[in-house]
TrEMBL record:
<dbReference type="InterPro" id="IPR011006">
    <property type="entry name" value="CheY-like_superfamily"/>
</dbReference>
<protein>
    <submittedName>
        <fullName>Uncharacterized protein</fullName>
    </submittedName>
</protein>
<dbReference type="InterPro" id="IPR001789">
    <property type="entry name" value="Sig_transdc_resp-reg_receiver"/>
</dbReference>
<dbReference type="Pfam" id="PF00072">
    <property type="entry name" value="Response_reg"/>
</dbReference>
<dbReference type="GO" id="GO:0000160">
    <property type="term" value="P:phosphorelay signal transduction system"/>
</dbReference>
<dbReference type="InterPro" id="IPR050595">
    <property type="entry name" value="Bact_response_regulator"/>
</dbReference>
<keyword id="KW-0597">Phosphoprotein</keyword>
Length: 268
């Protein structure tokens, strides 16, 4: 099964001072190890995405003339109103990755529709909604309403030796939890406007232990864009074992796996 979407994307850093460019380039060298991965390129024409100094007018004009504002994260005080994503200084590299992830999800959103190929997020040889039974790792469940997010989390965990099952809705998650035991469950807080419950309520249901006899209560990892201190408290009150904020970096995921499943957590 050929992967339907790439895991690596190129980013051009344009209009920054030598100091800012060097700092951003160093960060993106680290970001090459995550999924999805972002690596720097010097070419606006071939870059998948662009990070732009919004306060350097000639660069902003060049990006607009190239028709690339829809693919750009602009940083600074003079962000044009038609920019796809904007950030203020001081520059926070993880915030840039968060915005790039959001732009990527928007770009791939046309794949995330009913009636599309059921396996476009598949990672060879498993299909979305199933696990690769040839793997000998522990079974984990990932719950997210975005098939793009599911795809990237699936790849991350498979690379670490897990057999990954996925669910789009709370009902699918509870059905899978009733059918077999899982070592861990990875939940987003927001599960879509039509979901019967959010990830916090689903976490509470899981931790209440309403599972078939012989099924241990799994560890629950929240993976969400909600990252305030109050959000984290709500996660703790819901019973989650680890609360991870997006954009998810590899070292944070590895730290969670070492804490919850040290015998199986491996480096990517």
């Amino acid at each position: 099964m050929t992967e339907r979407i790439p895991l690596r994307y190129t980013v051009a850093l344009l209009g920054f001072s030598d100091f800012e460019h060097s700092a951003l380039a160093s960060f993106f060298r680290l970001a090459e190890a995550r999924t999805p991965a972002y690596e720097e390129t010097g070419s606006l024409d071939t870059a998948d995405f662009v990070v732009v100094n919004a306060d350097h007018a000639p660069t902003v004009a060049a990006v607009r003339d190239a028709g690339r504002l829809r693919d750009a994260v602009l940083i600074g005080a003079q962000v044009p109103p038609d920019a796809a994503a904007r950030l203020q200084r001081p520059i926070a590299p993880t915030h840039i990755v968060r915005e790039l992830d959001a732009l990527l999800e928007q770009r791939l959103a046309h794949l995330d529709v009913n009636g599309g190929p059921p396996d476009w997020v598949a990672s060879e040889p498993g299909l979305l909604g199933t696990a690769d039974t040839s793997r000998q790792g522990k079974d984990v469940l990932v719950v997210d309403d975005s098939r793009v997010a599911l795809r990237f989390m699936q790849v991350r965990l498979q690379r670490r030796g897990y057999r990954v099952h996925v669910a789009h809705t709370p009902e699918e998650a509870l059905e899978r939890l009733g059918a077999q035991p899982f070592t861990m469950v990875f939940l987003d807080v927001a599960l879509g406007p039509r979901a019967s419950m959010d990830g916090l309520a689903l976490c509470q249901r899981i931790k209440q232990g309403r599972l078939p006899a012989g099924h241990d209560v799994p560890k629950v990892v929240m993976v969400t864009g909600l990252s305030s201190s109050s959000d984290r408290v709500r996660g703790e009150l819901a019973g989650c074992d680890v609360y991870l904020a997006k954009p998810l970096m590899e070292e944070d995921l590895d730290g969670a796996l070492r804490a919850l499943d040290p015998s199986s957590a491996t480096a990517a």
